[in-house]
Amino acid sequence: MFLVRRGCVTPMLTGEIRSQIDAVWNAFWSGGISNPLEVIEQITYLLFLRRLDDLQTLEENKAARLKKPLERQIFPAGKDPKKRPYQDFRWSHFKNFAPADMFTVISEHVFPFRSARHASHVAATSPEQQLTV
Predict the structure, then answer these.
(1) In angstroms, rounded to a whole number, what is the distance separating the alpha carbons of residues 69 and 63?
(2) 3-class state of residue 2 by DSSP
(3) Cα 47 to chain center, whole Å?
(4) Which is nearest to 25 in space by CA: 41, 39, 14, 38?
(5) How far apart are CA 109 and CA 112, in angstroms?
(6) Strands 8-11 and 2-5
(7) Helix/strand number for the chain, H first, E second
(8) In this structure, is the dihedral angle defined by the CA atoms of residues 110, 115, 120 and 122, taken in order, positive or negative?
(9) Which residues in the chain show pLDDT less than 50?
(10) Model pTM?
């Protein structure tokens, strides 16, 4: 369904999509996040992590198909300095964790890992290349 307003065609939210959005909003609200900007920020970060996991999966599938090593590895093998497996940082893994464990993985492991990766990338690139990060 679409809504036509001022010459623009805008898709309308169906009942199913609307209820899914409400469920996400209620989950954030019950978790203590009621500011819409914070909700958008959190959803954006989770989508970013999911995309990184998708990219890693594509690289793994490509390497297996071509029988070659990974060209680009987003999540390295092994464990982080706090002894958490890097594989736990992947969306496909942590999405199944209990909420408390998921929070721990994101806050104590994923954030520092991504910050360190970003910092090392920035240090190794020119100012022009940094704009593409």
Answers:
(1) 6
(2) strand
(3) 4
(4) 39
(5) 6
(6) antiparallel
(7) 6, 2
(8) positive
(9) 2, 122, 126-133
(10) 0.69
